[in-house]
Write a structure and sequence with these properties.
556 residues, alpha/beta, 14% strand
Length: 556
């Protein structure tokens, strides 16, 4: 059977560099189905017009259409279903994802274009569903665990499927991204997931209900092998680990860092965690292995609001974790929430004082929002504050718990506080000196220190930082990459060319380095070599904009 796995963000999400990407879950389902022998294709319609979407569906006419649905793209997902059925009424439309999982009753009752919903973890369930539709699996949909569908007009759900116990048994999505429609593979693969589940009880998050409260981990060996495969096949040198709490198991983190360091993968990376799930030893190991930023859900500086949000953390834990992160030389990023019922001016000031104290380098502020599958939403439905079917009746992208003037004002004030803290909290020359005394040589520190010097126009100091990387670790592409960019900014064309040529010898599929070589050869007047390098970049990444622009400027 022909299976199309599709996603389309909402209009504003199409302009966002992250929301416009395919959900990681679709990549896993695609890989699992491919390994099982099914004919599948990924489609990211986020930046496609509806006319183009309709044309693609008419050309492919899939037997099964799997659609990933979130709250922000719920109506786009439903329009995909309607279009698919209009073009080919026999297409079996399956929804999955957090919104569909927690709103299956409402969706299936109202939209006959949606035939079934895969609830929660999707790989095994979707494969079994496809096998059943093909006449090769269990005899009926009612025997497929973990789905909901209509039977004689009534919505029914089957026995919940047990979570996959061995996440290492799943195939790596990166090995199966070929043939995708509208898929920016290089952007997609920057983001990886190494665990599923969250033991926390934050009232605003649906992750525990979707994945379960018990955390299941991939092995450090499996994660490092995935990173190595992506690095070798696609040339990526930077990764973002999107686990809810990457540092939940210290031993696993330490082993992951050891493998990265000993096997000399020479990457940079960031992750998300909780303030009560890190310590000095772990953070220092993370920094040595390439971690340059960590994000914490701090949410508020008010103990009362932290309790109301179900955070199970204290402001003192926030302060300690922030000090440890900064001490290790890792940049600190935080998430904040405002617009909680009963939030006062004094509680807003408490959050601002906390920001000033911990000096994050970056941060995001979000008003408190209702999402299906959250304790906040369930509680509010029971109290009559909001209707369970509001997400189908109202087309707003987000449903704020509060919409009074305080929320807009508080958001603005918190963003200002974050901006001030970022300016005041920049690592200084003295900070980097202390980090080197604490950690010894670490390419992450050198890169961050070099960038600081470049921002100040201290070119020689920046150069010394990068040269040290190339001297201590000649096989580390980051030293040469940073030198190439530095020499390009200071118009040292020959030295820049030599540095970027060294990068592509170390990482032959690093498209940005080939684009840089194309730009440099254009500057020095070597047109044939410029064209060759731009073309090489596009052969690796057809969506490389620098290479596209470079060839266009050369009239190619």
């Amino acid at each position: 059977m022909q299976v199309l796995l599709a996603y389309k963000s909402n209009i504003s999400g199409a302009k966002d560099p992250y929301t416009s990407l395919l959900p990681i879950g679709l990549g896993y389902i695609n890989a699992f189905l491919r390994r099982e022998g099914h004919l599948t294709r990924l489609a990211n319609f986020s930046r496609h017009s509806w006319k183009d979407v309709e044309s693609t569906l008419a050309t492919l006419r899939p037997d099964v259409l799997g659609v990933s649905q979130f709250t922000h793209n719920r109506f786009e997902s439903l329009k995909l279903a309607v279009l698919a059925k209009k073009i080919n009424p026999s297409t079996f439309v399956v929804f999955g994802g957090p919104h569909a999982t927690h709103q299956f009753q409402e969706i299936l009752a109202r939209y006959t274009e949606v035939d079934a919903v895969v609830m929660g973890e999707g790989e095994v369930t979707f494969a079994e569903l496809v096998n059943t539709l093909a006449g090769k699996g269990v005899p009926s949909l009612g025997e497929v665990n973990g789905i909901a569908f209509r039977r004689e007009g009534a919505v029914v759900s089957t026995t919940p499927r047990l979570p996959i116990s061995d996440l290492d048994s799943l195939p790596i999505p990166a090995a199966y991204y070929d043939g995708g429609i509208g898929v920016d593979v290089h952007r997609q693969l920057e983001f990886i997931v190494t665990s599923r589940g969250c033991p926390a009880a934050c009232v605003f998050c649906s992750s525990p209900l979707f994945w379960g409260r018990f955390i299941r981990f991939r092995s450090p060996r499996g994660v490092v092998d995935e990173i190595r495969m992506i690095r070798d096949r696609y040339g990526l040198l930077y990764f973002s680990i999107r686990d809810d709490t990457f540092t939940a198991d210290k031993g696993r983190v330490m082993e992951f860092c050891r493998l990265l360091h000993e096997e000399k993968l020479h990457i940079l990376w960031n992750c998300q965690s909780r303030v009560n799930a890190v310590d000095d030893e772990m953070l220092r190991a993370m920094k040595r292995s390439g971690c340059e930023c960590i994000q914490f859900g701090v949410e508020s500086g008010s103990p009362r609001l932290l309790k109301a949000l179900g955070k199970s953390i204290t402001t003192e834990e926030v302060r300690r974790a922030a000090a440890s992160v900064r001490g290790a030389g890792i940049e600190l990023s935080i998430y904040l929430i405002t617009g909680v019922i009963g939030e006062t001016d004094e509680e807003l000031k408490a959050s601002m004082r906390l920001i000033e104290a911990i000096r994050p380098h970056d941060g995001q502020v979000s008003p408190l929002v209702y999402y299906p599958g959250t304790a906040l939403f369930v509680r509010s439905v029971k109290s009559g504050t909001i209707g369970r079917d509001v997400f189908l009746k109202d087309r707003r992208e987000a449903f704020y718990v509060r919409e009074d003037p305080f929320v807009a004002s508080a958001t603005k004030e918190l963003l200002k506080a974050l901006s001030r803290a970022a300016d005041a909290g920049r690592f200084t020359t003295a900070d980097f000196r202390a980090q080197k005394n604490l950690l010894g040589y670490c390419h992450t520190t050198n890169i961050m220190s070099g960038e600081m010097h470049e921002e100040k126009g201290e070119w020689q100091s920046a150069e010394r930082e990068y040269v040290e990387i190339t001297e201590r670790e000649p096989e580390n592409p980051w030293g040469w990459l940073c030198l190439g960019e530095l020499y390009g900014r200071t118009e040292q064309w020959d030295r820049a060319l030599r540095a970027f040529n060294r990068v592509v010898r170390l990482v032959p599929v690093h498209a940005p380095a080939y684009s840089a070589l194309g730009e440099l050869n254009t500057i020095v007047g070597n047109r044939p070599e410029a064209i060759r390098n731009f073309q090489r970049a596009l052969s690796i990444n057809p969506l490389d904009k620098a290479a596209q622009d470079g060839l266009r400027a050369l009239g190619e």
